Amino acid sequence: MPKGIFDTAPVIAEMGIDIIVIGAGLSGLASALALCKAGHNVTIIDKRDVSQPWKGAGGCRIPPNLVKIIRRWGLGEEFAKKALPLESLHMLRFETGEFLGQHEWAEEMLREAEGDYELIEYQDLWNIFYKGAQDYGATFMMNTTVTSVDPHALEVTLADGRILAADLFIGADGPQGLTRKLLSDDIEQTPSDGCVMYEAMIPADRVRDVPELKSLGLGQKDINKIMLFLGEGLCMHLFPVSGRDAFAMQLCVGPDMIPAGEPEGSWGDAPSVRIADKLPKNVEPRIKKLAEYAEPAVRVRSENTRLSTWVHSTQRLIVIGDAAHPFPPGAQQGSALAVEDAAVLGKLFTYLKVDDQIGNFLWAVQELRQDRCEKCLQEEYDLYVFLTLRQGEMQEVRDAEMRLKHESGRTDLRQGEDVAAKQWEELRTVYAYDCEDEADNWWIEWGLLRERARERNEFYNTTPIRQPVIQQSVRSV
């Protein structure tokens, strides 16, 4: 076990299996780390060259439920070097720059959630999980394309003709990936058409001394805050990353504001868009000025589609993260729930004793995760609707309630009975969730019952148990 990765010695499964993870994004890396921790042999395959930085990856808002896992897994020290603790959320009108109010996270809520709210560049977050997976023994096959997955034969075929075999396949290759397509018959289209986000980075030295931008508080000694601009049919987040040496700019456009013929786009695409070209005519002057200094942006388009099942009928393939439940781009819970999926997967597979348990554990992951992910997904879309209200009665009520709270000196939007308070109270329950506790509870309530039933069966009693495998390997066919 690598020194310093985990605070306590991990529980190792009695039976170690060979696992192939397809996709080296955040969910893939977290899965590899958690499953290696559980004593399994994990190989990650990705077509990307990891020696090169992610293209247009931008910034991440990391909620307490993810920070909690990062620290629990022993990655907190490296995370603290790169992340900025969020101190406040400022809300302004997109068209005028009017200050509507601010929100500060109550200390008791963060204590309950066992984490803080942090800001980090995606590349830095990815590097932390990559290093953790490496240190724990995962094998990486990069610059390698998987052309087919056959869960029946327990094989994957690579572009160069090689065929690899494993006991289990984890699909972590995103919403357009190969593994999600294996379950495509079970995709459900919801009424919402999704949204488009344009994300760009702004080097701080370009904007720090611009007179028109001084009032935004972009200096090195200013507080770490998210500036959330609320507009008609769109919204924008602006927040610092990389020790305040850069700012992430995320412009999210709702379905009725997407220009006709707008191309598709996904994470990993080369930045190809100027945010300044995507701004409406009626825009706050400081936003326009910021956009002029921004680097080229990546375009990410999402469709609100959902899988009925995450588990293949063979019970040897499961999809997780964006391959299972694509979140709108820039959603605060997108990365968090992807890592939660991995954490539950790793926790359950610490209890693996016999091959027959694999399918039960995969269905348990879906049982534990699907409702939460769909609920959070709906809340994210509801939040986007709330932030991008068109001019009218609902928008006027929302803004008036924010102004009233600000004028009365209230900085906790959970207070009160208005719409904003209800939105933030829902987030509180999301932050306090502990996915690994849920997995342990499932094992105690259901897994042990099945295990005892298995032990009473003479067939299983005579089935040899494989010893833990220390050296990772992928079998070549």
Automatic annotation (TrEMBL):
Keyword set includes Flavoprotein: yes
InterPro entries found in the cross-reference section: FAD-bd (IPR002938), FAD-dep_Monooxygenase_BioMet (IPR050493), FAD/NAD-bd_sf (IPR036188)
Superkingdom of source: Eukaryota
DNA-binding listed as a keyword: no
Residue span, FAD-binding domain: 18-348
Range of residues in the leader sequence: none
Alphabetical list of Pfam families matching this protein: FAD_binding_3
SUPFAM superfamilies: FAD/NAD(P)-binding domain (SSF51905)
Keyword tags: FAD, Flavoprotein, Monooxygenase, Oxidoreductase
Gene Ontology MF: a single term: monooxygenase activity
Stated family: Belongs to the paxM FAD-dependent monooxygenase family.
UniProt name for this protein: FAD-binding domain-containing protein
Organism: Cerrena zonata
Organismal lineage: Eukaryota, Fungi, Dikarya, Basidiomycota, Agaricomycotina
